[in-house]
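Task: sequence design from structure.
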């Protein structure tokens, strides 16, 4: 039997580009999160702690930062901590793991460059030596066929699932567990907790790094009875700070009600001083409202650790504007004509109108697939404006 914590992507020394002015708080929070992980590992009496890459933000974090990590992990002694070099902290000639600060790592903290055997498990890593590669890191490793041990592969990269990876982002073939004959594949790199199948998991980053992340802030507690057994995997939340995005779509004439509903939702957020909040305004609004939109959120600023308001709302259109856009292009003129016919035909059936608009849009995309994008996007804009006008006039 083997029982361990699978984690990755600590990114200690985090550069925090999305919220640089509170960079220090964000970096500090990550130490707090490690402390929690160490506590959980002790409480759960694990055989080891496995960090599947990107423990550090880069190979150039300060010696002081490295020392702090080592000192926190010393609390786990003698439980082993296995650390895989990832793409943020690859095992290059200037690797942080070849530096002086790391050379003081106590014996129970071990860099995963070669396979490691524990009483019941065989851990086979594929350390990274560069920041990008088109090669599958799992292609470089294998398990000896005769070993009667629990087989754990440790990899850092992107599962090669259509639409979810870049070709040079260490693509890992999704059949990795079957191909390697592994009981468990401990992945790192994706920041969301992700289960591909019974044997292949990403723990995600234990401390969120971005507003766009979903399901981050966890570690995995993994238990495997013996060779061939299915792993039992439990997600444990450990995050210190919360990154939250709230958005609303504005409609002309209803801006204030919609804003009030959004503010009501925001007031209910717990632990505001430990929350980074991004507010996104979309849709259409009258000019006066847009001009003042900043001040509606001013009062919130002191409650939250960080507040970021992104206003993508557009000025509510007037019919003159639509004519101006239409005048610029024959194609759009044609579309407008069709849409206006539709509008008359479907008066009072807005749902249908927007379905029909979608259908027209699809046709434009097909017909003009390879043509200048701005043509399609202005047609798109004209459609949106018209749909919006129809909605606001009909309701
Ligand atoms: Mn990575």
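Answer:
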């Amino acid at each position: 039997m083997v029982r361990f914590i699978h984690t990755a992507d600590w990114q200690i020394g985090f550069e925090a580009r999305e919220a640089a002015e509170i960079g220090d708080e964000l970096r500090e929070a990550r130490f707090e999160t490690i402390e929690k992980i160490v506590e959980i590992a002790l409480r759960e009496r694990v055989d080891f702690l496995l960090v599947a890459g990107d423990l550090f933000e880069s190979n150039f974090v300060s010696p002081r930062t490295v020392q702090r990590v080592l000192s926190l992990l010393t609390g786990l002694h003698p439980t082993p901590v296995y650390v895989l070099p990832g793409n943020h902290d690859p095992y290059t000639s200037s690797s942080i793991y070849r530096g002086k600060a790391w050379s003081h790592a106590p014996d129970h903290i071990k860099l995963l460059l070669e396979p490691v055997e524990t009483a019941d498990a065989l851990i086979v890593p594929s350390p990274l030596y560069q920041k990008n590669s088109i090669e599958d890191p799992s292609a470089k490793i294998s398990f000896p066929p005769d070993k009667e041990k629990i087989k754990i592969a440790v990899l850092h990269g992107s599962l090669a699932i259509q639409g979810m990876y870049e070709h040079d982002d260490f693509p890992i073939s999704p059949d990795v567990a079957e191909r390697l004959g592994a009981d468990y594949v401990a992945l790192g790199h994706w920041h969301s907790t992700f289960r591909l199948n019974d044997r292949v998991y990403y723990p995600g980053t234990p401390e969120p790094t971005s507003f766009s992340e979903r399901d981050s802030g966890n570690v995995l507690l993994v238990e495997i009875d013996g060779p061939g057994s299915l792993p039992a995997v439990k997600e444990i939340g450990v995050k210190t700070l919360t990154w939250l995005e709230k958005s609303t779509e504005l409609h002309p004439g209803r801006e204030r009600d919609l804003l009030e509903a959004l503010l009501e939702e925001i007031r209910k957020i717990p632990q505001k001083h430990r929350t980074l909040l991004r507010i996104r305004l979309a849709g259409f609004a009258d000019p006066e409202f847009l001009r003042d939109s900043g001040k509606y959120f001013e009062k919130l600023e002191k409650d939250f650790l960080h507040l970021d308001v992104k206003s993508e709302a557009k000025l509510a259109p007037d019919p003159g504007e639509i004519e101006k856009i239409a005048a610029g292009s024959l194609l759009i003129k044609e579309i407008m004509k069709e849409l206006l016919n539709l509008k008359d035909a479907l008066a009072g059936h807005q749902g249908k109108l927007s379905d029909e608009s979608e259908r027209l849009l699809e046709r434009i995309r097909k017909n003009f697939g390879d043509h200048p994008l701005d043509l399609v996007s202005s047609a798109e804009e004209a459609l949106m404006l018209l749909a919006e006008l129809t909605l606001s006039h009909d309701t």
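The CA atoms of residues 121 and 149 lie 5 Å apart.
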